[in-house]
Amino acid sequence: VGNRAVLTCSSKSNMTMVIWKISTKVGGLCTMGYRADLNKTDKINCSDSVDWKFRPDQDLTLEIQQVGIADEGNYTCEVVATDGNLIKTYHLIVLVPPRLILSCDDHGNPVCEAATGKPAAQISWVPESNSTPKEEGHDNGTVTVSSKFTAHGTDVINMTCIVSHPAGNQSKSIVC
C-alpha cells in the first residue's frame, strides 16, 4: 500500500490494439484501450491513479501510482495482432504493514498490538509467552491483532514483542 505498481504487457510488432481490463474489489470494471491505426487511447471507469506508464505506442506498461486496498484485483492485458492475440493476467494483492503498538495495561502487563495490517500479522514474545492472540477484522479488509504477555515466571522484567508480517517484521521492548 502506498507504493507504485508496474504491470508489463508484451507488445507484438503487428499489434493493432491493446486492452487492459481491470477488475478490482471496489469500483467495478475499468478498461483502458489503445488503437494503433488511429494512435488513440481511451479510458473508461478508471481511477486517476491508474494509467499508461509511457505512451502506449512505445510501451504497453500499466502503472498504479499510489496503490491502495481498493486497487486489489485482476489486471488483464490483451494484445490484438494480425497473427493472434496475447493475453496476460496479474492478480494484485495489496499488503498493508501493521502499526506496532506496545503498552502496559492497568495491571502492569505488556500488551502488543499489530494494528490494521493486511493480511493479519503474527505476534510472538521474548521471553516466550503462552498468550493467545486476538484478531479484530475491519471493514477495509485490514486486521488488528493483539496479545497480552503472560509470564511463565514472575522474574521477567524486559519483554519484547515481535510482529511478523509479509510486508516486514518489527519488534519493540518494554518494561512494565
UniProtKB/TrEMBL annotation:
Example of a GO cellular component annotation carried by this entry: external side of plasma membrane
Molecular function (Gene Ontology), one example: signaling receptor activity
PROSITE patterns: IG_LIKE
Domain Ig-like: 1-79, 102-175
Chief location of this protein within or outside the cell: membrane
InterPro entries registered for this protein in UniProt: CD200R (IPR040012), CD80_C2-set (IPR013162), Ig-like_dom (IPR007110), Ig-like_dom_sf (IPR036179), Ig-like_fold (IPR013783), Ig_V-set (IPR013106)
Disulfide bond listed as a keyword: yes
Keywords for the protein's UniProt record, in alphabetical order: Disulfide bond, Glycoprotein, Membrane, Receptor, Transmembrane, Transmembrane helix
Localisation: Membrane
SUPFAM superfamilies reported for this sequence: Immunoglobulin
Keyword Metal-binding included in the entry's annotation: no
Membrane topology summary: Single-pass membrane protein
GO biological process: regulation of neuroinflammatory response
PANTHER family tied to this protein: CELL SURFACE GLYCOPROTEIN CD200 RECEPTOR 2, CELL SURFACE GLYCOPROTEIN OX2 RECEPTOR PRECURSOR
Family assignment from sequence similarity: Belongs to the CD200R family.
Protein name per Swiss-Prot or TrEMBL: MOR1A protein
Native organism: Centropus unirufus
